[in-house]
Design goal:
Length: 272
């Protein structure tokens, strides 16, 4: 059953309140949008706290960002959302926020690319950090381009995070997953060690994702050169080398120096 305009606006407000209550945004930070047709979208206004949103504040715009309905004005950062909708027809909702720990990863120049939680592996995989762009310009939408086809979550350098979904619930859940994964990774680093899920277990999780028919895009195994596939069958070995069984790429060749060093150690052991 299709939702009414009021129901969509109310849901956007509820997500805005959740972002504010969780501390994912401060003041009037962040923005939310929902696609209602190929040329119509509802979005949050500029200059309003997400914790104070009411349905009458939500704006309707077209695919070029022109206001069709509403007393307030859309955020200048709606350009990010419109780029996603243009390049990803499967996306019906976009959330932009500043989750503190995930954003801190971008400020510290640390990638959020370690596979440590099964839930995060299933839903988001590794989260790319997009190049820094000036807010309100096309620099940020353009920074999404290298990753937009294979990811549903993006970190924006020194800026925050962007998540997408086939509906608004999925988009906000993905935002929560990004921050929770970042928090756990930060704590593990502080404890002195991060043990990633072994590659053979990642393969099982990718098979599970397929059986569960989880919607959205996923980057696949981060050690596989064929990024974007969810069906990589490569058997990864310690150190990152692998035996290719998917037919899409070859295992990296060992360097001459490495071969020489291994040979030297084997001969030393035999001569003892």
């Amino acid at each position: 059953m299709q939702k009414s305009a009021y129901e969509i606006k109310k849901e956007i407000c509820e997500v805005g309140h959740k972002l504010y209550d969780k501390g994912f945004v401060a003041a009037n930070d962040g923005n939310i949008s929902v696609k209602v047709s190929d040329n119509e979208f509802y979005c949050t206004p500029t200059g309003v706290s997400k914790g104070a949103l009411t349905p009458d504040m939500i704006i309707r715009i077209d695919a070029n960002g022109n206001k069709l309905e509403g007393k307030l004005n859309p955020s200048s950062e709606i350009k990010m959302h419109l780029r996603v909708y243009r390049d990803r027809p499967d996306v019906n909702a976009v959330v932009h926020a500043h989750p503190p720990v995930a954003t801190a990863f971008t400020v510290a120049g640390v990638e959020l690319d370690q596979y440590i939680l099964p839930e995060a592996v299933l839903t988001i995989g590794n989260v790319p950090t997009c190049e820094y762009g000036t807010p309100s310009t096309m620099e940020i939408p353009d920074s999404l381009a290298p990753y937009i086809e294979n990811h549903d979550a993006f970190l924006l350098k020194n800026h925050g995070a962007l998540t997408v979904g086939h509906n608004l619930t999925k988009a906000i859940f993905t935002m929560e997953e990004v921050e929770f994964n970042a928090v756990i990774c930060k704590h593990a680093r502080e404890l002195g060690n991060v043990e990633e899920i072994p590659c053979e277990q990642l393969e099982k999780l990718m098979d599970l994702r397929k059986r569960m028919q989880i919607p959205g895009r996923h980057p696949g195994c981060k050690k596989c050169k064929n990024l974007g596939t969810e069906n990589c069958r490569c058997k990864h070995n310690a150190g990152g080398s692998h035996t290719c069984t998917c037919g899409n790429h070859a295992a990296p060749a060992a360097s001459a120096d490495l071969v020489a060093e291994i040979t030297k150690r084997v001969m030393a052991e035999l001569n003892k």
